[in-house]
Amino acid sequence: MNRELLLGLAKKYDSPLYVYDTEKIKNQYNRITSAFSKVKNVKINYAVKALSNINILKVFKNLHSGLDTVSIQEVKLGLLAGFNPIDIIYTPNGVSLKEIEDVAKLGVQINIDNLSILELFGQKHPEIPVCIRINPHIMAGGNSNISVGHIDSKFGISIHQVPHILRVVENTGMHINGIHMHTGSDILDVDTFLMASEILFDVAKQFKEIDFIDFGSGFKVPYKEGDISTNIEDLGKQLTKRFNNFCKDYGKDLTLMFEPGKFLVSEAGCFLAKVNVIKQTTSTVFAGIDSGFNHLIRPMLYNSYHHIENLSNPKGRERFYSIVGYICETDTFGSNRRIHEIREEDILCFYNAGAYCYSMASNYNSRYRPAEVMMHEGKDYLIRKRETFDDIIKNQELVI
């Protein structure tokens, strides 16, 4: 999306504003499917938690994607978007048995990640096929908050507890139809991913009737010029060879699954915000915008990097700024960034804002959540209205 287009959208829809480019989503989807084109059965399940607007889900449905969901609400969004239940996998963590049972009634693939629930579910519903989420004890991910496959993680059943899984399966007579792992987000080292995959193969061969192996995702995307990212093509070549050999040894053509979120939508999104004030202190020049971590929490939560560009003054001389928000506590998007001179009323663009940005937005400080716009086949569409004061109070009850 070029500068003039983004400025036009900010003028048309006001700011702050999220903008998504479906062409970029399509390109990323085709990139990963091409990387694994030599596997007979490949299924990409988009991770709904990254960006859950129903219009984005419809884009993935048109690409013949499946969905990876982590809540019953995400499952219902997928069904509302038109997905067939068999194209949805449900991988919760720490939810009640009741929620899992309610989801099972909807006909989607169940993925269980703890022994207690596995045994309870197997005792009550041995006829429902279940996938098992394994914790491979591999430390991977760009931040401790998004590294989920290590030994101290709350996610998955330890590889050392596979004998317990086998005992539960034998005692309940339940059918295990898939094996799954997810090590974390922002995985850069292909070798680390392949090492975890070997562990998953070792587990999978102990189950004789599986239909698929789900390798999760967590592929790293570039956040700035010159940044490095997961070499998905190299991973495709190496994992394809290993997976096809495993299927041959297993005696069955299994389905290879992935559940990318950030890889598919991060680079498709931009976040536009207007500069409210330039504030010079004794040591810093702050550019305060009409937003805060209530709209884009990743820099404060994960110390994540979002490249920031001044769309309004692309030829201005470069100066150093700290970009901050209007939330009433430390609220920094970027410190000491070299940006073309910023003036009040200028529009700033935050890149890589497609994944885990709007989906983690809140009404903190009683602020409204922003609008969302989708660029699709050359046209812009408002896909979520900006909130109003009525939205803030609509579920509140006056009792005194």
UniProtKB/TrEMBL annotation:
<feature type="binding site">
    <location>
        <position position="218"/>
    </location>
    <ligand>
        <name>pyridoxal 5'-phosphate</name>
    </ligand>
</feature>
<feature type="modified residue" description="N6-(pyridoxal phosphate)lysine">
    <location>
        <position position="49"/>
    </location>
</feature>
<dbReference type="InterPro" id="IPR000183">
    <property type="entry name" value="Orn/DAP/Arg_de-COase"/>
</dbReference>
<keyword id="KW-0028">Amino-acid biosynthesis</keyword>
<dbReference type="GO" id="GO:0008836">
    <property type="term" value="F:diaminopimelate decarboxylase activity"/>
</dbReference>
<feature type="binding site">
    <location>
        <position position="356"/>
    </location>
    <ligand>
        <name>pyridoxal 5'-phosphate</name>
    </ligand>
</feature>
<feature type="binding site">
    <location>
        <position position="298"/>
    </location>
    <ligand>
        <name>substrate</name>
    </ligand>
</feature>
<dbReference type="GO" id="GO:0030170">
    <property type="term" value="F:pyridoxal phosphate binding"/>
</dbReference>
<dbReference type="InterPro" id="IPR022644">
    <property type="entry name" value="De-COase2_N"/>
</dbReference>
<comment type="similarity">
    <text>Belongs to the Orn/Lys/Arg decarboxylase class-II family. LysA subfamily.</text>
</comment>
<protein>
    <recommendedName>
        <fullName>Diaminopimelate decarboxylase</fullName>
        <ecNumber>4.1.1.20</ecNumber>
    </recommendedName>
</protein>
<keyword id="KW-0663">Pyridoxal phosphate</keyword>
<feature type="active site" description="Proton donor">
    <location>
        <position position="328"/>
    </location>
</feature>
<dbReference type="Pfam" id="PF02784">
    <property type="entry name" value="Orn_Arg_deC_N"/>
</dbReference>
<feature type="domain" description="Orn/DAP/Arg decarboxylase 2 C-terminal">
    <location>
        <begin position="18"/>
        <end position="354"/>
    </location>
</feature>
<dbReference type="Pfam" id="PF00278">
    <property type="entry name" value="Orn_DAP_Arg_deC"/>
</dbReference>
<dbReference type="InterPro" id="IPR029066">
    <property type="entry name" value="PLP-binding_barrel"/>
</dbReference>
<feature type="binding site">
    <location>
        <position position="329"/>
    </location>
    <ligand>
        <name>substrate</name>
    </ligand>
</feature>
<comment type="pathway">
    <text>Amino-acid biosynthesis; L-lysine biosynthesis via DAP pathway; L-lysine from DL-2,6-diaminopimelate: step 1/1.</text>
</comment>
<comment type="function">
    <text>Specifically catalyzes the decarboxylation of meso-diaminopimelate (meso-DAP) to L-lysine.</text>
</comment>
<feature type="binding site">
    <location>
        <position position="302"/>
    </location>
    <ligand>
        <name>substrate</name>
    </ligand>
</feature>
<dbReference type="InterPro" id="IPR002986">
    <property type="entry name" value="DAP_deCOOHase_LysA"/>
</dbReference>
<keyword id="KW-0457">Lysine biosynthesis</keyword>
<keyword id="KW-0456">Lyase</keyword>
<dbReference type="InterPro" id="IPR009006">
    <property type="entry name" value="Ala_racemase/Decarboxylase_C"/>
</dbReference>
<feature type="binding site">
    <location>
        <position position="356"/>
    </location>
    <ligand>
        <name>substrate</name>
    </ligand>
</feature>
<keyword id="KW-0210">Decarboxylase</keyword>
<comment type="subunit">
    <text>Homodimer.</text>
</comment>
<dbReference type="GO" id="GO:0009089">
    <property type="term" value="P:lysine biosynthetic process via diaminopimelate"/>
</dbReference>
<feature type="domain" description="Orn/DAP/Arg decarboxylase 2 N-terminal">
    <location>
        <begin position="23"/>
        <end position="266"/>
    </location>
</feature>
<dbReference type="InterPro" id="IPR022643">
    <property type="entry name" value="De-COase2_C"/>
</dbReference>
